[in-house]
Amino acid sequence: MLRVWVASWPLVRWEEIVPEFLGIDPSELSMADAHRLLLHCVAPRPIAFTSTLSPEGVPNLAPFSYFMAGGANPPSVAISPLTDRAGGPKDTLRNIRATGEYVINVVTYSMRERMNTASAEWPYGISEWEQAGFTPAPSVKVRPHRVLESPFAIECRLYQIVSHGEGPLSGNYVIGEVVYFHVSREVMPEGVIDVRRVDYIARMGGDWYARASREALFEMPRPPRVEKDAPAG
Predict the structure, then answer these.
(1) What is the four-CA torsion angle of 134, 90, 202, 41, rounded to 10 degrees?
(2) Are 224 and 230 in contact (CB under 8 A)?
(3) Cβ distance 175 to 139 under 8 Å?
(4) Whole-prediction pTM value?
């Protein structure tokens, strides 16, 4: 039996396609149920702890788990700050549109509680930096600060924003070109990044998180390239 821990389930209608699976048409779900199901399906998701500045210089710091690497030539990343539940842009999206600059900071297990504090919907003018107790450190090529406690900080300049959908919880794919990296020497002791030293966390569905602790990691080399004319088997 498939069980998914989502507060508002069971859904209105389940379509049984095969005994082991349930078929769900997203057009028949509420917006909230579709959102919850998507977050359970696409997991774990790394967290982009994103630092921005308003045009007036007001700092903002917010985590987003709709986050991915985009390409390497040039290096690029993408985040998607969803439109808020009132249908308006979040401060992060508004600031990036206005200034074209931001910093993505990787979140580790030791940062988890303070990151969660920063995720609250604080009134405009209240500093998430101060409320969560993070230390702002100067960036090199952009104006927003990086988070000193993060082992990786990625300075970005806006390349493009692609909006998808309208109204609450619609997507806004923010593609940024990486212009500078900051890497803590603690995770790069001999010039090579040691992932066992990082202790990343990631978002799951609901209130759940995953931890990439040393004990949970495993290494699996990719298979060698198969030549086109190589014999099968």
Answers:
(1) 170
(2) no
(3) no
(4) 0.88
Angle at 36 between CA 31 and CA 171, to 5 degrees: 60
Distance between CA 29 and CA 26 in Å, rounded? 5
DSSP 222: P
Looking at domain 45-214, its CATH architecture is: Roll (2.30)
Tell me: the pLDDT tens digits for 59-117?
A: 999 999 999 999 999 999 999 999 988 888 999 999 999 999 999 999 999 999 999 99
Alpha-carbon distance of 159 to 109, in angstroms, equals 30
Strand 209-211, strand 136-137: pairing = unpaired
pLDDT of res. 18: 57
CA distance 119 to 47: 11
Q: Which of 210, 224, 225 is nearest to 43 (CA)?
A: 210
What ranges do the domains of the chain cover? 1-41, 45-214
From residue 110, give the alpha-carbon distance in Å to each of 149, 196, 217: 9, 14, 18
